Backbone:
């Protein structure tokens, strides 16, 4: 059994070129990917590259005079930070200023318009039953209704339906009045109208108008708002449904599949965004809808969704539809044919970015307050540039001192250490450049400090390995067996040391926020790269050089001279004197 093991070990030792080829191929591939991505340099943080500073001011909601408080402001900061800085390394900063302001700093290179939408959008989502709808604007006489769609995990039919549209013999206002009377009776009966009530109310309204005295003032006001609502007017559209509570019916606007604005009367909210457990953006390969947003409900939300869809399935169009309302705007109004449960989807000709942004907002939750932009200013990087210059000088001095120490103390071995440091630096730079467009990583001053600290961690791994080799030479072994015997012992020490450093970086990343996360992220990244470089570059290179005469013969400048190291002479076995033999007994 011993012979095959020795053969395998010899085979592994004789092919260190494979490991070197692997890491060189990886460097070449990553470098090529960096240039192909169009980002040959790391993305810099706001302290190094400047950026945009946005001031958001909280607004009081009707009926909620004390909504602006420290708890809600802190919650809003947390949600905004997760939206624009989900992984903690994009270098966007969100912090409060005073009692009702939030400052958002976005580094240069980030899509500022997209980020402004991310932080400013309240993202309040409600599922409301549709009571009445028609195309809004001057061309409302003959237009199709919205055709947004939704689906569920049990594949029930909930395709887009044709909403009630004004006919050629009926004016929009007359249709709205007729629908309004139907809505009046529906609201009196139940927040979710039934088929019978809808039909009877429609018949009674067509036969003889109800006296105005029988109409509830709130309902009459809602009907008037609906009649006067012109969704093609941006200012009017922005105020549609202002002040309406989730438990109240309201009016809203939304675009249909033809790009025309549709107006709605919606019942009280049956399901809200807080009932959503997960949300994600996926590409729909089975239809031409493109990107869509999938939602997974909580157990309570799934029951609510099944209940409301079960009621709506009994109604006639358009009261068998429910509207998915995001921040007061209808983004989809699917028709329901049976009770649904499980997951839901929002489709509306989204681009990939729009779908991901919407899923991001739904996933991290709605803001507890409504905000308006007070100011948007440009931040310069003058101070950060000076600090970066000073930091780079400090890093260069530290690296120079490390190299001088390696050359003086380890002599020829310092070539291996310097080459390993160069490979580690190259990998760090390329990966940082690739992480910018991939996860939004931004290099800030603390991250630069983390990279400088990593120089010492990487150099420490080389020193451990070199000292183990020297210990074996001091025991009287030649270089090649000394390298192979020293590696297992050095490997354990290196792994334990790097594990402790990585664990510290991980804990620091989890428990901190802001710029400190950049330091922790860079420290953890460079610690992992240290393991890769030592295993795939330093050890194979040492194995190859151990075969060269300069190192194998212990040249005085190799750093492995047995005399300078105080090596012991090779151990030799001596024969023990044999015991005297009694000739008589023999």
Residues:
């Amino acid at each position: 059994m011993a012979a095959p093991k020795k053969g395998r070990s010899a085979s592994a030792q004789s092919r260190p070129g494979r490991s070197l080829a692997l890491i060189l191929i990886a460097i070449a591939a990553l470098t090529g990917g960096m240039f192909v991505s169009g980002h040959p340099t790391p993305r810099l943080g706001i302290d190094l590259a400047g950026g945009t500073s946005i001031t958001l001011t909280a607004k009081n909601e009707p009926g909620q005079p004390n909504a602006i408080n420290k708890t809600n402001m802190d919650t809003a900061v947390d949600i905004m930070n997760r939206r624009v800085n989900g992984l903690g390394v994009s270098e966007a900063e969100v912090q409060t200023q005073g009692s009702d302001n939030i400052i958002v700093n976005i580094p240069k290179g980030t899509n500022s318009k997209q980020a402004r939408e991310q932080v400013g959008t309240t993202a309040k989502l409600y599922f409301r039953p549709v009571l009445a709808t028609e195309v809004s604007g001057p061309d409302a006489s003959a237009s199709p209704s919205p055709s947004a769609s939704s689906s569920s995990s049990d594949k029930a039919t909930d395709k887009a339906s044709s909403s009630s549209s004004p006919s050629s013999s009926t004016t929009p206002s007359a249709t709205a009045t007729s629908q309004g009377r139907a809505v009046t009776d529906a609201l009196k009966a139940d927040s979710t109208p039934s088929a019978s009530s809808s039909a009877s109310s429609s018949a009674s309204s067509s036969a003889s108008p109800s006296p105005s005295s029988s109409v509830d003032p709130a309902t009459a006001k809602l009907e008037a708002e609906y009649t006067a609502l012109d969704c093609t007017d941006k200012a009017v559209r922005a105020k549609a449904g202002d002040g309406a509570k989730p438990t109240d019916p309201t009016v809203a606007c939304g675009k249909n599949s033809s790009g025309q604005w549709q107006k709605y009367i919606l019942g009280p909210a049956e399901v809200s965004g807080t009932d959503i457990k997960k949300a994600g953006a996926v590409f729909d390969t089975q239809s031409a809808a493109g990107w869509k947003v999938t939602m997974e409900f909580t157990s309570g939300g799934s029951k609510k969704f099944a209940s409301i869809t079960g009621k709506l399935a009994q109604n006639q169009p358009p009261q068998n539809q429910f509207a998915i309302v995001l921040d007061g705007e209808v983004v989809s109004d699917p028709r329901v044919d049976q009770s649904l449960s499980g997951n839901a989807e929002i489709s509306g000709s989204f681009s990939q970015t729009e779908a991901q942004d919407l899923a991001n907002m739904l996933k991290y939750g709605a803001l507890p307050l409504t905000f308006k932009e007070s100011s948007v200013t440009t931040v310069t990087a003058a101070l950060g540039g000076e600090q970066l210059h000073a930091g780079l000088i400090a890093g260069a001095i530290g690296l120079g001192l490390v190299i001088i120490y390696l050359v003086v103390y380890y002599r020829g071995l310092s070539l291996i250490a310097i080459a390993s440091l160069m490979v580690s630096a190259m990998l760090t730079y390329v990966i940082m450049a690739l992480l910018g467009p991939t996860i939004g990583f931004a290099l800030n001053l603390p991250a630069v400090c983390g990279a400088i600290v990593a120089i010492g961690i990487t150099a420490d791994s080389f020193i451990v390995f070199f000292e183990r080799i020297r210990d074996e030479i001091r025991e009287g072994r030649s270089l090649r067996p000394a390298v192979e015997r020293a590696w297992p012992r050095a490997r354990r020490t290196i792994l334990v040391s790097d594990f402790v450093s990585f664990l510290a970086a991980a804990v620091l990343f989890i428990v901190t926020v802001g710029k400190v996360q950049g330091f922790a992220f860079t420290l953890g990244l460079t610690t992992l790269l240290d393991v890769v470089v030592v295993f795939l570059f330093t050890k194979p290179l040492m194995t190859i050089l151990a075969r060269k005469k300069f190192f194998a013969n212990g040249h005085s400048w190799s750093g492995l001279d047995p005399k300078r190291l105080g090596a012991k002479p090779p151990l030799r076995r001596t024969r023990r004197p044999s015991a005297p033999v009694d000739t008589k007994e023999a």
Remarks:
- The chain has 18 helices and 13 strands.
- Residues 1-12, 141-180, 189-213 have pLDDT under 50 and may be disordered.
- The first strand starts at residue 51 and ends at 59.
